[in-house]
Amino acid sequence: MYKLIYLVLAFAVSSITFAQNSVSGKVIDAETSEPVMSASIYISKLEKGALTNFEGMFQIDNISPGNYNLVISSIGYSTRTLNVSFPFDEELIIKLQPSAIEMEAVIVSTPFHKLQSENVVRVERETIDNLNKSGAVNLAEGIALLPGVETVTTGAGIGKPVIRGLSSNRVLVYAQGVRLENQQYGDEHGLGLSSSGVESVEVIKGPASLLYGSDALGGVLYLNPEKYALPADTEVDAGITYHSNSLGTETNAGFKTSGDRLKFLVRGNYATHSDYETGKGMRVTNSRFDEKDIKTGIGYQDEKYRGDLRYNYNNSTVGIPEEIGEQSTSKKELLPYQQIDNHILSFDNKLFFNNSSLDIKVGYLFNNRKEFEDHHGQEGNEVENGEEEEGPALEMHLETLNYDVKYNSAKWGNFETIFGVQGMFQTNKNFGEEILIPNADVSDVGILALTHYHLDRLDIQAGVRFDNRVIESREMGVFGEDEYFAPIDKSFNSYNGSFGIKYDLFSQFISRFNVATGFRAPNLAELTSNGSHEGTNRFELGNPDLTNEQNLQLDLALEYRNEHFELFTNVFYNNINDYIFLNPTNRFIEGDPVFEYLQNDAKLYGGEAGLHLHPHPVDWLHLESSLAIVKGEKEDGENLPLIPATSITNTLRVEFEKAAWFKNTYSFLTVKSVLDQENMSAFETNTPGYNLLSAGIGGSFNLNKTMINLRFSGNNLLNEIYISHLSRLKPDGIPDRGRNISLSVQASF
Q1: Is the peptide bond before 544 cis (omega within 30 degrees of 0)?
Q2: Are residues 92 and 229 in the same domain?
Q3: Which of 333, 435, 496, 541 has the most beta carbons within 10 angstroms of its beta carbon?
Q4: What pLDDT, on a 0 to 100 scale, did the predictor assign at position 375?
Q5: CA proximity to 126, closest of 117, 118, 116
Q6: Which of residues 65, 99, 133 is at a domain's end?
């Protein structure tokens, strides 16, 4: 592995001169032949592109010989894909057809970098910019706006994604192109990521174990990092956002510059919030949090090589709320609280050959999780200097080295094929007074092959994969005592496969059918837990006899779009063998109820449906509706815990490219209706439904050479008192956040 890393580094720093290939041309309106300004021309396999100038002209240099798809897109036009073989000496004249259908983006999380309309698997995608327009306080809250995606929350500062009823270690998170590992097995652990420096989010709903291995049983949350500036361009921006409910502020600044081959960017973000206020006008004690985040990257690209070295440091201090007690607007940390440091160092490399390429990604991640608890009756008091001298009650260091190597073979007729190997090496070490899981090593490796067959109206995708994961834990404590951890040495294997078809039933009508198996090896907490701590309100006992979770999911999607409206429906059935769950034992240890890990077969089923109406010629008017339903049951008929309630979201949106002296103006009105959740597990209670009203307005204007972007939004405008079924504060009867008004100002230079 280390020899491989050194080899990649050698490629990155070498400056070898090759004959330059380039492509240039002009993008015009197909009906008027007028040039299209600011159209995007993007070569997905090379991950490079350009924008057209005032005359519609563009040029992209340093292109390796081979066949590539050029994706041409612009607001108000249909996205077009054009296949070009390099070397290519002609000047392209590209005609775009005006359309009210919103332009498509390239999907990165699935192989072959297809447009959504060309993809065999349906993927939900949204830009962070659009999620921020809604007034979302953090990343976890923003992704919950996507159909079929919800969030398990512990106050306002801790959130975990839920995809079709599955969460925690059943949903895999990717950041900077590498697998995120940050003690994510627990619901009370946040993502440890900021939306700052993230361009877009993609969600694969359903088993993605074939592409990503264990823990992708329920789906994948894929975060695409911010792109570098275009060649010979420099960009600087800064902004501030204010949230009225928690008196929160978020400041953000970024700088990026690019030459012909070298690129650089850096971005910093700081957010701080007081305790949030419920619809009752009471603040939830110790729901305050703050977050510091910095991201930086260096990129290099020539005809034969592309390298991207990125680093992200995220530090957050998050209070653990337990009651509505002392009313305060202080932002100073209060016992108990979590303090989390996340480091992500990723190195993404791509070597280009004639009509094929080799992708090599290496990631190093370090997660330091500390929990400070009530040592000397200090609970409810702000932490003063010196009070932390006793050290954290809980401190765990999780260190992970992962790798992902894929060979994209040359096309064989209509076939595109990928061969790959993935894996990781991981260590967990304890340094605090309390120990929940023992010191341990985890290693795994997966081998995969995936092929795609393309015809004009038919696409077929199929693949196979083998995985092996080994977990070895150390003996800790004294045998016979409560704090004793017996050593384990477990190996888990799994074979998986997938098969999918996309067929264009007729013009603008797409059908997709996918069947896939997936697996999840039991994690260290499920195998070895022996303790309780702040934030869980329970004592957890691991089960060393647990086996793999193995599932089979069927997924059917139908989509239709024309110039007036878009319609989709997506249904699924997910059967999981040996589903792992926590079960109460009717025992108590030091006042905490004892839960143990057990297994039983389970099934989840449901789907999403949506409508987007944009009648022509009033293209500025948008009416969007979506429905999400999921049911989860164990083999004995008992309901699974933390299953989201059925929700219906309706949005009226108005957009104008130009309005008076404002540009890109928008306004929206959204009503999210969540129905009663009466299908709960044995240790849950039913949750009444609720309706949330949100609205916003925004736009941008030029001030000399500075672009000013303004946003104003409000969430829960009616100040409704409600509790989400996925709130971990629900057993204590603590409501969710009340009315919140957000104001954002951003300047680009």
Answers
A1: no
A2: no
A3: 496
A4: 54
A5: 116
A6: 99
Angle at 715 between CA 713 and CA 716, to 5 degrees: 150
Q: Which residue has the higher pLDDT, 620 or 345?
A: 345
Are the CB atoms for 558 and 503 separated by under 8 Å? Answer: no
Examine residue 336 and say whether the peptide bond preceding it is cis (omega within 30 degrees of 0). yes
Which residues constitute the domain of residue 58?
2-99
Identify the top-confidence range among 94-108, 159-173, 291-305.
291-305
CA distances from 318 to 69, 275, 331 (A): 45, 11, 10
User: Distance (Å, rounded) from C-alpha 126 to C-alpha 627?
Assistant: 17
Report the CATH number that the domain containing residue 49 is assigned in CATH.
2.60.40.1120
Same domain, yes or no: 197 and 58 = no
Distance CA 86, CA 439 (A): 53
540 Cβ partners below 8 Å, 6+ apart? 436, 525, 529, 530, 531, 532, 582, 594, 595, 596, 597
**Domain presence at residue 115:** no
CA distance 324 to 735: 10
pLDDT tens digits, residue range 3-30? 444 444 444 444 333 345 788 889 998 8
What value, to the nearest 5°, has the Cα angle with vertex 532 and ends 526 and 538?
85
CB 169 within 8 A of CB 520: yes
**95 shares its domain with 146:** no
* Alpha carbons 692 and 461: distance in angstroms, whole number: 40
Structural domains in the chain (count): 2
Within this chain, do residues 150 and 88 fall inside the same structural domain, yes or no? no
User: Looking at residue 344, what is its pLDDT?
Assistant: 97
Checking 255-261 for CB contacts under 8 A at 24+ apart, the result is: 256/226, 256/228, 256/229, 257/229, 257/233, 258/228, 258/229, 258/230, 258/231, 258/232, 258/233, 258/234, 258/299, 259/231, 259/232, 260/61, 260/62, 260/231, 260/232, 261/62, 261/300, 261/301, 261/302
Give me the residue label for tokens 């919800």.
150
Residue at a domain's end among 70, 99, 128? 99
Same domain as 154, residue 56: no
Residue 136 falls within a domain, yes or no? Answer: no
**Average pLDDT, integer, range 489-499:** 95
Among 428, 559, 427, CA closest to 502: 559
CB 65 within 8 A of CB 87: yes
pLDDT, tens only, 149-166: 999 888 888 888 899 999
Query: Which residues have C-beta within 8 Å of that of residue 278, sequence separation ≥ 6?
Result: 284, 324, 721, 734, 735, 736, 737, 738
Q: Could you give the percent of the chain with pLDDT greater than 70?
A: 93
Give tens-digit pLDDT for 62-106. Answer: 787 777 778 888 877 878 888 787 777 778 898 888 776 666 778
Instruction: List, for residues 380-429, the tens digit of each pLDDT value.
Output: 556 554 444 468 888 999 999 999 999 998 778 888 899 999 999 999 99
Do 299 and 440 fall into the same domain? yes
Instruction: Measure the CA–CA gap between 542 and 306, rounded to whole angstroms.
Output: 45
> DSSP alpha helices (H): ranges in 71-112?
none
Which pTM was predicted? 0.89
What stretches of 162-278 show up as alpha helix (H) in DSSP?
A: 209-212
Instruction: Classify residue 34 as exposed, middle or buried by CB count within 10 Å of its CB (0-12, 13-18, 19+).
Output: exposed
> CATH number, domain at 410?
2.40.170.20
- 125 in any annotated domain: no
Separation between Cα atoms, residue 443 and residue 618, nearest integer Å: 56
Whether residue 322 has pLDDT greater than 80 = yes
Q: Is residue 704 part of a domain?
A: yes
Say whether both 80 and 218 belong to one domain.
no
Distance (Å, whole) CA 242 – CA 237: 17
The answer to whether the beta carbons of residues 367 and 340 sit under 8 Å apart is yes
Rounded to whole angstroms, the Cα distance separating 688 from 39 reads 48
Domain identity same for 617 and 689: yes
Which residues are CB-contacts of 657 (< 8 A; sequence separation ≥ 6)?
75, 76, 663, 664
Whether residue 106 contacts residue 123, with contact meaning beta carbons closer than 8 Å, is answered with no
Cα angle 698-702-707, degrees, rounded to a multiple of 5: 70
